[in-house]
Design brief:
This protein has 173 residues and is an alpha+beta fold. It is 16% helix and 37% strand. A hairpin with a 4-residue loop joins strand 12 and strand 13. The longest helix is centred in the first third of the chain and has 24 residues.
């Protein structure tokens, strides 16, 4: 009897879990998009996005100790932080070199399928990158383009003032 009850509870739990996953796939667009951490670019000159919304990576590798990213695609509120973002190669290894400011960039529709062949970019203002590689932005960018909430292919980049990306949000939730 206990075995049958235990099996029933396990099956019920699995069914509820599957329902929760299914509801997540159809989640309301007002759900906040989160990236669990921030990592530096591994392969220099890598490209994210397509068409006029393509963003080229910095020429060399960067590393980061961590960070976070939260974006509300309806209100446009963006909160990102990165810690320990430094060069991972070359003569400036372990430091930020000449990079003193960064901005966050939301790359919506990375494959361009819903926006005429080009990704849509939304930038935060530039913020200071201190000598330890720490930077933070918390503010509202206003209403974001609808493709930022309607398309599942979305990325978050941290870019230099010159526009090259040097880090990205990782583990999208």
């Amino acid at each position: 009897m206990e075995t049958r009850l235990l099996r029933s509870l396990v099956v019920s739990g699995l069914a509820l879990g599957a329902m929760a996953i299914g509801q997540g796939a159809n989640a309301d667009a007002s759900d906040i998009v989160r990236w669990q951490t921030v990592v530096g670019i591994i392969q220099g000159n890598n490209v994210v996005g397509t068409g006029t919304g393509a963003v080229t990576g910095g020429p060399g590798p960067w590393s980061a100790l961590g960070g976070h990213v939260k974006v509300d695609p309806i209100t446009g509120h963006v909160d990102f932080g990165v810690s320990g973002l430094v060069f991972a190669g070359g003569n400036a290894i372990g430091g930020t070199g000449a990079v003193r400011q960064v901005k966050g960039t939301l790359v919506c529709d990375t494959d361009g399928s819903a926006s005429g062949g080009s990704s849509v970019l939304v930038d935060t203002p530039l913020v200071e990158l201190d000598d330890q590689g720490d930077a933070r932005f918390n503010g509202n960018l206003g209403a974001l383009p609808s493709v930022c909430s309607s398309e599942p292919d979305i990325a978050f980049l941290i870019r230099t003032g010159a526009g090259r990306w040097i880090a990205n949000g990782a583990v999208l939730r």
